[in-house]
Amino acid sequence: MRILFAGSPSLAVPSLEKLARAHEVCAVLASPDNPAGRGRALRSPPVKEAAQGLGLRVLQPRKLDAAAEEEIRGLAPELLAVAAYGRIFRKSFLDIFPRGGINLHPSLLPRYRGPSPIAAAILAGDAESGVTVQRMALEFDTGDILAQERVSLRGEETAGSLTEQLARLGAELLAAVVAAEAEGRPVPARPQRAEEASYCHPLRAEDGAVDWAEPASLIERKVRAYDPWPRARTRLGPVSLLLLKTHVYPGTLDDAARAAPGDVVAADGTHGLLVRTGRGILAVERLQPQFKKPMDWRSFLNGRPDAVGARLGG
Which CATH class for the 205-307 domain? Predict the structure, then answer.
């Protein structure tokens, strides 16, 4: 089967690699190269790099306009396979594909329609997550469900580690659905229940700013949900700090009762730097001061012994 694959981030790479081994991928549609890092050098999306390594043609139109549609139509693709491409396809584009389009989404649809479902599941403290393969629809993430796979969450996952897990699982599921399509035995579809739908917004840099008035449990989930981006962060005076690993302190402290949210009330040899929050105490195990490498809390305290008793925030 001739497939046009559309995707951009690392989540999509295992799906592309698996489909390319079993089918004819006539081209790969990826987002354009964009400036990144301090030097603002152009950086290719991971799917483009993977496609080039496989010797596949890569298309990176700024707009999916009539010219882009005409180029893709000339490739005579039969099926559109999508994994985290991040754009809505209009009807004229979907009409190019005789077998339609299918999409891999890293959530248990209709839960977490939108661009950041993995972070959303961690933020909510969900007991499970998963992947869904759906028929493409004109509205974002509303297509009929073809297959789903669930995974249990331990409460230790970061967005990065869960993305890797779901990318592998999703590739297997997408490949199975495509194989069924290619063999002429389409998978039965079931409509999503719109009344059960929930939504997630695009992540922004400002989402990582820690509000110490929030409960320790929520801040701990933000540290994991925003790893690797945009990272949970706070300040110690003028210095920005990234919080890399934390946990909710299981005990109580008399000093914490008199402290304000954001106060570093103690350094505990087992747990780390203890910070008062709006409810409970957050233990900071690893962090990264601005312009420095990641470090454990002891190394940080060696350089900043004044941290205990200081107030984080701002």
Answer: alpha beta
